[in-house]
Every structure is written in structure tokens, then in C-alpha cells.
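ok trying this again, last paste got cut off
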Amino acid sequence: PTLPRMFRLKAENKKKAQEFMGITNCQEATALSILKKHDWNLEVALNTYWENPAVQDKKAVKLDRKQLDKFFNTYKDDDSAIRVNGMVKFCEELGVDPADPVMLILSWHLSAETACVYTKAEFYTGMEKLEVDSLASLQAKLPQLRAELQNMSIFEQVYDYTFGFAKEPGPARVLDPATAIGMWRVLLTGRWPLLDQWCEFMETQFKKAVNKDTWHLLLEFVNTVAEDLSNYDPNGAWPYAIDEFVEWIKAKREDP
């Protein structure tokens, strides 16, 4: 599937891309390419799309708009979004725990900006991209979404996306420790033998907010440093939190 890039756009350009995709039912990559070529002028970009069959997606699937309306309306908290109450019902009827990593990759596909919220635009654009217009068709798509999480390239993008998705809306540039620990447990359970020790360290020793650098480089640490830390380079460019974790865990192993 086309990998989502919408979450990296400025809000104004993201809205234009969503409008473009909603009108044309084209794929995300097509919309972004044409809009960028025309300096994000939506009207000119749309004219280019309709006047040039060569750039139009040949396999774009037009879903039943009424069915998609019904799908959204079943869970919406208001006309603009599915929020906490609707999200609880959505997860229950989907048969998925809210803490299941498949919910993160779904949110990533929807380019959702805020945890526990799917705006109407995010929901419609994302579900159309996934070719889903009902709860049943989304349930049928879950095995594919789970399989995508096993693709390291996709997983790394979902992991990086989660930082912005999980932080408080607004200018904050950090995750509070409890949120970061919760997201690490969702993403890294079964992937990293030192996860429990890392979460214990962050909760009982570090106790500080987590910045994007620490969040991002932890995955590199997970992927490259052995469980026994034998190949850890103390002179490497690791964030302070990771250096402190290594010292803490080594001390625990020497004096259990």
C-alpha cells in the first residue's frame, strides 16, 4: 500500500490534500505529487488532474459514500469527529483492544493527528484509501494491517509517527513519561527483551519527559544493541536517557 505522508504536512496543505483526494478519489501519492507541482493551488491541481488522464489513478476504487456515512455516524461523538466515547465503542465492535498495535497502524493510515480522535476528514480519507466503508470490511482488513507491522520499514514509520500522535495537542514537544511508557509497551512488546527494564528505569529513575530525539533513537538502540549490551558504545551519540539506562542496568547486573 501507499505509505502515508499526510501527517508530515502543514495543516493548510493537509486540508488541501484531503479535499483533492475526496473530490478525485485518487491515491495519496498522486494528490501530493500534483499539488506540490502546482505550489498547493488546489484549483489548478484539480484542473490538471481532470485534463490529463495519464496522471489519473487507474485502480482508484469508489466506495459507497452512503455506507461510509453510516460507518462514521455510528461512532461519531459530534458531526466533526469520533472522540473518546465513540472510539471506545468503535474498538469494542471492531473486536480490538484499544492498546492493540493494530490501532496505531490504522491511525497512521488515517493520518490521525491526535490520540483517541478521528476527525471526519481523517476518517473518510483514510478509509477510502484503505478501500473500507464498513465495520465488516475493516475487520477483513485487520490481518493485512497486522502483517504490515512486521515490515520493518513500515514499523519504523509507525513508531516515529506515534510520538506526534500521542503527545498533547499544541506546542508541546515532549511526551510525558507515563504516555511514553504506555506507547513503548504497545509498540515494543515482543520485540525487545529489555523493554520491562527500560520502562522500570524510565518510571523509577529517569522520571522526565521524553523528547523526540530520545524517542527516535531508542528504536535504533533496540535494533542494534545486543541484549547483553556487549556491543554498546559509550562514546556513541546516544541520548542521555539511554546512556543512563545502560549504566543503571549494568549496575543491577553486577549487584543483583
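PB: full thing came through this time. The chain has a mean pLDDT of 89.
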